[in-house]
Amino acid sequence: MSRSKRVTISDIAREAGVSPGAVSFALNGRPGVSEQTRERILAIAEQHSWQPSSTARALVGAKAGVIGLAVNRPARTLGTEAFFTELIAGVQSSLATRRIGLQIVVVPTIDEEIATYRRWSSANQVDGVIVLDPRDDDPRLAALRDLRLPAVVIGSGMPADGADDDTAVIWLDDDEAAHTVFDYLAGLGHTRVVYVSGPAEFQHTRIRAAVLAGQESRGVDGETIATDFSPAQASAAARRLLSRAERPTAIVFDNDVMCIAGLRVAQEMGVAVPGDLSLASFDDSVVTGLVHPSITSLTRDTFELGVRSADLLLERFDSADAARNRPGPRPTLTVRESTARPRPPAR
Questions:
Q1: Residue 144 banded pLDDT, cuts 50, 70, 90
Q2: Strand 332-334 to strand 296-299: parallel, antiparallel, or no bridges (unpaired)?
């Protein structure tokens, strides 16, 4: 078979000695061919790097065999966040069992994210999507419902009972997670605590900020400062906070890279951690245990989070009666060297 032209289903059928219909059944995972024939067809398709035509898929309504993930984050921050590496690895490990691919794009705005979903849907390029960082009254969910594009959202909210769309949720209890961190700091005796968060419109930011505000009943003066998740903005926030006449006794960052940036600022300014300042992170990674002092972090199995997200989406492809939501891995607090009781005020 010539490799100079696009390999078609007819070409594969001819080489396998079967009908084009049998090839279509095999490539789309449909019944109608024996397992031995299916394996032979798949091997030939893989040998010739066969890819389906997006136009043909759109015309016949065939499965694309691809899941989409549009990430609305600053592109330069993604390479530094272990969260995304582990999440994507977990998603891929689940999809690989069904020979399904993952298409990832980085988008600058929520409008561009919605536009990406529309392009994917119109060309039948993906069978469903995984959605990150949900917001209140999230316009992406309405768009996905209009497109009838199946989705799994990773976040704090759960779908309403009886909702007639294809959205499911891997549910993360951000209220419990926030209490785990802020209650611990309050228990150590910290009374001036700042949460350096990601964008204010994210649900998890709002929930964590509300938990911190509720610590007032325990004598904690809490404050939230929103950033774009970048180390640069985290560093700038830390410099402002540590330049105050009355500095916070503890700062909690939304992710590990932001927290390490804050640690560097504290060291630069001669603020001892944890003697003068406790630091903690809502994300954990290998690096948080390697820096000095090592960083107290909320530890969650992010690889497993990716697996559960992809598994739930695949289950919804197979059955309309599949679960609408599933809990994500429950986090635990890993206490390290960066947190301690605050020093008593000088007399």
A1: very high
A2: antiparallel
Q: What is the 3-state secondary structure (H, E, C) of 129-148?
A: EEECCCECCCHHHHHHHHHC
Sign of torsion over alpha carbons 201, 72, 102, 147: positive
- DSSP character at residue 293: S
Q: Please, is 188 exposed, middle or buried when counting C-beta atoms within 10 Å of its C-beta (0-12, 13-18, 19+)?
A: middle
pLDDT digits (tens, 9 = 90+) for 18-30: 887 777 777 766 6
Instruction: Return the structure tokens found at 331.
Output: 């986090």
- Tokens describing residue 87: 């999440």
Gap between the Cα atoms of 126 and 103, Å rounded: 8
146-180 tens-digit pLDDT: 998 999 999 886 554 444 456 899 999 999 999 99
Tokens 């504290």 belong to residue:
266
Do the bridges between strand 325-327 and strand 167-171 make them parallel or antiparallel, or are there none, so unpaired?
parallel
Provide the pairing of β-strand 250-253 with 192-197.
parallel
Using one digit for the tens of pLDDT, what is the confidence trace for 64-78?
Answer: 889 999 998 776 666
Residue 61 to residue 174: CA distance in whole angstroms: 38
Mean pLDDT for the chain overall: 87
280 three-state secondary structure: strand
Q: Residue 97 — φ and ψ, nearest 5°?
A: -70, -20
The strand pair at 66-71 and 101-106 is best described as parallel
